[in-house]
Amino acid sequence: MAAIRIRDLCKSYGDAKVLRSINLDIDDGEFVVLVGPSGCGKSTLLRLIAGLEAITSGEIRIGERVINELAPKDRDVAMVFQSYALYPHMTVRENMSFSLKLRGLSRDRIAAAVDAAAAKLDIQELLDRKPRALSGGQRQRVAMGRAMVREPKAFLFDEPLSNLDARLREQMRYEIRKLQRDLGTTSIYVTHDQIEAMTMADRIVAMHAGIAQQIGTPADLYDNPANLFVAGFIGSPAMNFIAATLVHEREAADNATHSSVMVGSLRLGSVLHAGAVRQDGRVTVGIRPERIALGEASGLATQIDLLEPTGLGTVLHLRLAGQRIKVFTTERLAAGTKDAVNIVVQSRDLLLFDPDTGVRLR
Amino acid sequence: MEPHGKLHWAIHYLLLAAFVSFALFPLFWLLKVSITPNDLLYSEGVRLWPSRATAEHYASVIAHSQFPLFFRNSVIVAATTSLFSTLFAAAAGYGFSRFQFRAKYWIVALMLITQMFPLVMIIAPIFRLLKPLGLTNSLTGLVIVYTAFNVPFASFLMQSFFDAIPKDLEEAAMLDGANRFAAFRRIIVPLTLPGLAATLGFVFTAAWSELLFALMLNSSSAASTFPVGLLAFVSKFSVDFGQMMAAGVLALLPVCMFFVFIQRYLVQGLTAGAVKG
Amino acid sequence: MTAAARQLERGANWRGVSWRRVLLAAEPYLYTLPSVLLICIIMLVPLLIGLTYAFHDVRLLDPASGDFVGLEHFRELNADPAFWNALRNTVTWTAASVTLQFGLGLVLALLLNRRFPGRALIQLLVFLPWAIPSFLSGLNWAWLFNPVVGPLPYWLKALGVLAAADNLLSHPRHALWGPIIANVWWGIPFFAITMLAALQSIPADIYEAAAIDGAGPWIRFRRITLPFLAPTMAITILLRTVWIANFADLIVIMTKGGPADSTQILASYIFTQAFQRLDFGYASAVATVLLALLLAYAMALMVLRAALTHRG
User: Fold this and answer.
1) Tell me: the pLDDT tens digits for C148-194?
2) Residues of B in contact with A146 (CB under 8 A)
3) Same domain, yes or no, for B182 and B88?
4) pLDDT digit string, tens, across residues A78-94
5) Given CB 3.0 to 4.6 Å as the disulfide criterion, which of B34, B69, B107, C251 pairs with C268?
6) pLDDT digits (tens, 9 = 90+) for B136-180
7) How many structural domains are present in chain C?
8) Domain for residue C50, yes or no?
9) Which residues, 6 or more positions from B93, have their beta carbon under 8 angstroms from its beta carbon?
10) E strand or H helix at A10, and its extent?
């Protein structure tokens, strides 16, 4: 186990910059999730840490060692691939023993290590089977067993649950996280699924276009997103973004301002923010669907476009002053499509974002 | 697919029967004459089966002629060529499959060009190249030349087999503690055994059948391969058809056996070669 | 950790780039170098040497030969009726062989493209000719045409193709068809296998969708099968054309180019000049012409293909 430090890491393929100046400190034993849409650079970052691709500039340290130029085999990290990459012509036992054989350990020690890992993963009956005779979930466990057996400094996971169906994914999320806690090995986990990120991570690195947009705990990213991307990526159903204008109300201490948030002629609420209002007053307002309440007589008038019952609750697609917003409620509703309904919004739930750069205004 | 009427299937089988007859008839005739005794050869010319069969031609060929020598030479040359070609081609094919490098375009172009020009064109220069080295009239010389001829096609073939194996297997092995060559040896190669077998088979067949260079580079019968020996035999004993055809049937045996084994991989292998090439 | 790794960690490098990166960049060359060297020495260098022979007087039997003669050989071949005849024959030989091999191969592939009992066996049998060494195929067919032991002269007479039951291969006008038939016999399996693989890669649901839409078998063939096959067909035909134009073995075996050079194609003419007359200079000149023609053919096709893809 070891801490991992990444400094100013950049990666380009020719002229294409895939990673821009990534800085990240991972503590020993931490479970960090790299999350983001396709092409954001998360897998590339993982592969750079593994040594499967070469760094363009920057530095990676594991423990105290700079590992930039080390071959994958010398880095002492283990990886679980999206396709599991189990050796098809070897049995499960041989798959798990391979790395130890390469290290030159004795047969007894290898057998002991493999049996211990198999017991922990509950795959003892599978040891003499070949990968093609295993189900998806079983292969996943074998891939983890292969990584575990080496007792590496870090585990790297490259979207290991993408190939499994939804039910199995839920279960494996739990198993992976529990296993990692038991072993205490530093882990870096890549996924495009924000639910996996939120449920499994100690800290999340939200990535987009090669840049780490925000690094923090799941609660941090949910409550306090740094920009439009993070706000819209984390949380499901996704945050509502409404084009609005800020109208100056009064000055406040420390160069802050109270402003009204207006959508057309409708007033959503009042916010306190740093700096003055922009010339044109344009702002993007974010509010989570679950934070909007359905009011009786008070509140803003909207019309229902569509209802999506999810069992747990209902997602309502509404129209407010020509813009579409979603509301999530656990109440059972009597209303239907085309009905009118009033919504209530709390000022403290409004998040402000610069409409051009997407940066969060505080 | 939708069901077809009886007429449809009748035509289908009829056409297939025509193809099968066309394919097998020459070989059948070869066999037939090879077991026809000499006295019946001329009188019974066009019969579909001799009234009396004999193995005397085979006996003569095996016991009295130099055919066993020619056969042995061909086996040595073809087997050695296929071994070396496959080795070289496996390495080159792996290089093409896994790496992107600047010279790749040029090397592939070089290999394609070698498939396109008339080989007869370099018969003279190769002769003059090998003679001072003592490699004419030698099996070694033939092996070197044949290996060079077959490496391009074999490389493309091996490349297509390697392409079918996911790259993350090597990556997993490299993380497990192997360097690339060890990963190649222990993980990738075992998975391409069918591909290796197919390549060995293709090259063996090609080397076995080669005539012109064997003719040109060998003037002594000690180093003659089967095609050369058979041709010389034919021109010397041009009336002894029984023996010639028996020799022909014997020439078929190794390649037919190989063929039966690798037929499964032919469809895979040839498409890859043709499309890539 | 290995000693090399320890060194790397300390930052050992060469001209500012770590050793490991240099080795990594060199890796692909290590894998491909043996093949490249072999090909260069055995094929590329002789090719270049061969091209120079075309401009020199090179006779194997005459040690004094080797003088530069400029375009002398080319003038010689321009005036050589055997050369022009060989050129004509090359076109006939290539066109007939490719057309028949391709056409019959396609039919065979279509026949094999559906499941029926005995398919595996029939497939093995019809593909067998491909495994026969070419020299044996040549000899075999030569014997079939020989009135002494072969049935074909009698059948050809019965069909009215020949006036008397003699050897097709001794008729100057028709002899070339002997090797052509042998070539077709030998070459059908190759096309059939390639076409079959291509046919089997066409997704079945396209046919199903078309059938539901009401398309009959002929329309499905024209509108689905042929367009899907077109790229494979094009590449295969291109490569085989070049290969067959270069393929002299069958002619050398069956007719030696005779009677009276009537069945010579350029490739076999080159061989007989080199092997029998041992005139390497002249042979190389003819070979140079053949090479130039093939390059022109390949380039014309590439231009055509570029033009078609631009329009399409």
Assistant:
1) 878 888 888 888 877 777 788 888 888 889 999 999 999 998 888 88
2) 172, 176
3) yes
4) 999 998 899 998 999 99
5) C251
6) 888 899 999 999 999 998 998 888 888 888 889 999 999 998 888
7) 2
8) no
9) B154, B155, B156, B157, B158, B159, B160, B161, B162
10) strand A4-13
Question: Do C30 and C140 lie in a common domain?
Answer: no
Residue-wise pLDDT for A315-349, tens only, equals: 999 888 888 999 999 988 777 788 888 888 888 88
Residue A192 has pLDDT above 50, yes or no: yes
Residue B74 main-chain phi, psi, to 5 deg: -65, -40
Q: Do B175 and A72 touch (CB under 8 A)?
A: yes
Q: How far is A117 from chain C (nearest CA, A)?
A: 24
Q: Residue C60 falls within a domain, yes or no?
A: no
Helix/strand/coil for A239: coil
**Average pLDDT in chain A:** 90
Q: Give the closest residue to A175 by CA, choosing from A162, A163, A161, A165.
A: A161
Q: Are residues C19 and C159 in the same domain?
A: no
How far is the CA of B16 from the CAs of A243, B28, C180, C225, C227, in angstroms?
A: 72, 17, 22, 20, 25
Kindly state whether C270 is in contact with chain B, defined as any CB-CB distance less than 8 angstroms. Answer: yes
Residues 6+ apart with CB under 8 A from B21: none
B176 contacts chain A (CB < 8 A):
yes
Residue B171 token pair = 């990556």
Residues B179 and B262 in one domain: yes
**How many CA atoms, within 13 angstroms, populate the side-chain half-sphere of residue C295?**
9
Number of domains in chain B: 2
Statement to judge: residues B46 and B128 lie in one domain: no
Q: Where does the pLDDT of residue A32 fall: very low under 50, low under 70, confident under 90, or very high at 90 and above?
A: very high
- In whole angstroms, what is the distance from residue C101 CA to residue A3 CA? 67
CATH topology of domain A4-233: Rossmann fold (3.40.50)
The DSSP annotation for C92-146 comes to HHHHHHHHHHHHHHHHHHHHHTS--TTHHHHHHHHHGGGGS-HHHHHHHHHHHH-
Q: What is the pLDDT of residue A96?
A: 93
Question: What residues of chain C lie within 8 A of the CB of A66, using their CB?
Answer: 9
Is residue A222 scored above 90 in pLDDT?
yes
A69/C24 touch (CB, cutoff 8 Å), yes or no: no
Considering only CB atoms, which chain B residues are within 8 Å of C59? none
**B239: pLDDT strictly greater than 70:** no
pLDDT band at residue B184 under the 50/70/90 scheme: very high
Residue C66 lies in a domain: no
pTM: 0.81
Residue B134 near chain A (CB below 8 Å):
no
Query: How confident is the model over A48-57, as pLDDT tens digits?
Result: 999 999 899 9
C138 lies in some domain? yes
Residue-level pLDDT at C230 = 80
Q: How many CB atoms lie within 10 A of CB A75?
A: 22
For an interface test with B, the pick among A70, A87, A149, A163 (most B C-beta atoms closer than 10 Å) comes out as A87
Q: Does B198 touch chain C (CB under 8 A)?
A: no
Q: Is C20 on the interface with A (CB under 8 A)?
A: yes
pLDDT of residue B271: 46
CATH of domain A240-361: 2.40.50.140
The first and second tokens of residue A293, run together, are 């309440």
Neighbours of chain C (3+ CB pairs under 8 A): A, B
The phi and psi torsions of A8 (rounded to 5 degrees) equal 50, 45
Hey, are the CB atoms on C150 and B29 less than 8 Å from each other?
A: yes
What is the domain range of residue B206? Answer: 59-276
Query: Phi and psi at residue A289, in whole multiples of 5°?
Result: -55, -35
Asked if B100 is an interface residue toward chain A (Cβ–Cβ < 8 A), one would say no
- In this model, does residue C8 exceed pLDDT 60? no
The SS3 call for residue C181 is helix
**Residue C248 confidence (pLDDT):** 86
Say yes or no: B28 and B127 in one domain. no
Q: Are A79 and B187 an interchain contact pair (Cβ–Cβ within 8 Å)?
A: no
